[in-house]
Amino acid sequence: MLKRLIYSREGVLSIIVLAMFFGVGVISPDFISLSNSVSIFNDTSILIMLALGQMLVILTRCIDLSVAANVAFTGMFVAMVNQYFPELHMSLLIFLSLFIGALLGAINGLFVWLLKVPSIVITLGTMSIYRGATFLLSDGAWVNSHQMSESFIGLPRYEILSMPVLGWMAIAAIILFFWAMKFSVWGRNFYSAGGNPMAAFYSGVNVGKVQFYAFLVSGTLSGLCGYLWVSRFAVAYVDVANGFELQVIAACVIGGVSIVGGLGTVVGCVIGALFIGVVNNALPIIGVSPFWQMAISGLVIIIAVIANATSDKDKARIILRNPNANDEIRAN
Amino acid sequence: MDTTIKKSATPDSMFTSKLQGLLRWESFLVLIVFLVCVMNSYLSPYFLDPWNLSDATFNFTEKALIALPMAMLIIAKEIDISVAAIISLSSTLMGLVAQMGAPVYVVAFVGVLAGAACGLFNGVLVTRFKIPSIVVTIGTMSLFRGISYILLGDQVVRDYPDGFEFFGQGYVYWVFSFELVLFAFFALVFYWLLHRTTFGRYTYAIGNNPTASYYSGIKVDKHRLILFTLVGVMSGVASVLLTSRLGSTRPSIAMGWELSIITMVVLGGVSILGGSGTIAGVVLAVILMGLVTFGMGLLNIPGIVMTIIVGVMLITVVSLPVLITLYKNKKAKAL
After folding, report:
1. Membrane spanning segments where (chain A) (predicted)?
2. pTM of the predicted model, to two decimals?
3. Cα separation of B227 and B120, whole Å?
């Protein structure tokens, strides 16, 4: 049991992350203190939640490049609602962020489900549309912290058991996903739809619908993260989270979610996100310029996919999605 | 685009329908280009001025140079989204070489060489380790631009040797800029390569069925490697032009260009699933995008709104053929 745990991808990854964590701790003991560990986790929370949503999409052989643009749009939207109606209750704003995120995700999902258009093209398009829409919405203006209400900024910072609500939200998402992906039919369908769409079709799984759900969940989480991002940094502007979709995909890939679909675990995905979180937090401490961050995450993605490819060689040759499978499904 | 959907036809009729479909798509593009021209000249009296039109070409020639090999790569069922990052890295290296006082031709050569090396790196990762190209290029996208950030940080390089500005700002004859002439030259080269050589035929074969191509003796991996390197080389060329035109280098150069380049290719009728598309279609799409952007520029529409329109165009272009087929199928069922 222990041996299997150590030799699994998640095992190896956690050892690497822990080694990095304590390695930096040798240089700077403060780094591994409890409060700093909590703050690293808290810093990584948004990445974890987005990566979990992205994992569902990648499991079904799709990709969602529009998550960061969704974060920017929803964040700007709720920030502006808060600016003009400061007396509105927070629960309503959170519901609003979930709803708008879900709506943007559903647009992606509907194209993929009903028109069978490759997701990479759709989300590449919606990525620039959502980002442009953020500009149209705000007219390029910023919403600054003094224009936001106190509860709007305070909610993710509110501490329960010395961890901010933001971190607890990530933990709730992890538990929910862990349960759903392991024990619910709804969750298992993502694996079957991505692992073998033909077989899934013949066993009564509506592959397109499952893909739609994946985009819906990814969009909903992006919406929530849109609010969390804007409130955490206490500012909303057009370029919020620019390029963040790459980090989200990187977290999935590092965590062992196979880009060809059907493979990947919640635990792996979370550790993948934590890997990026630890690297980002460690760089300034060991005195490396933050300009190294991008190249390092690129290098890590490449190493991770090479490791993936050498471990599951036979599954690694499909790009985008298999067109024939869909044609046959449609023909039936 | 709609060719990929018709699977039930016999091989013969499939070929003719494919041919007709492509012809229709390209004539459709010609029609739209014409309409946009008419509309633009109606909207703005400055549109039909030769110098204005010549200025407009600078908006797209650099991207278009990359769209040509990208079309071939997508036809071969691969994709490269690291092209903008290649431009950034190659521009950074040119800047560093120029700072050391290298002459014009060395600077330009370094740019192209750096592009080729990046492309080769992508190709080796895809072919050696059998990794899907989209993941590889998502990784190298961060890596290449990340190296630029390591080398330059938040600095800007401006000291380029005299004469370097010719590549991006010079004119060969009257209103014909060096960039435009170079694009026309490469459009012909790639037309010849894709439509007149075995290399081009192999590209289609690989895109339609990599396994069958492999078993019929095509060196699939070597072919892919060459295509990735070609994309890299042309990104290097584009980087020389862009750097020369701006006269400066910073790591964030050409941010987001991969979107417009892929849009040009898809708009030109190249199937994102591989196996079909023409250079003529891509060239027409390039002209169309250039004219639309230019027309919007004349109307003072901000750049970010143009990205919305590019996004809408991309989605429309891929969805429209599917919608038409769905509609046709429904009609056929009703009869």
Report:
1. 12-34, 40-60, 67-85, 91-115, 160-181, 210-230, 251-279, 291-311
2. 0.85
3. 9
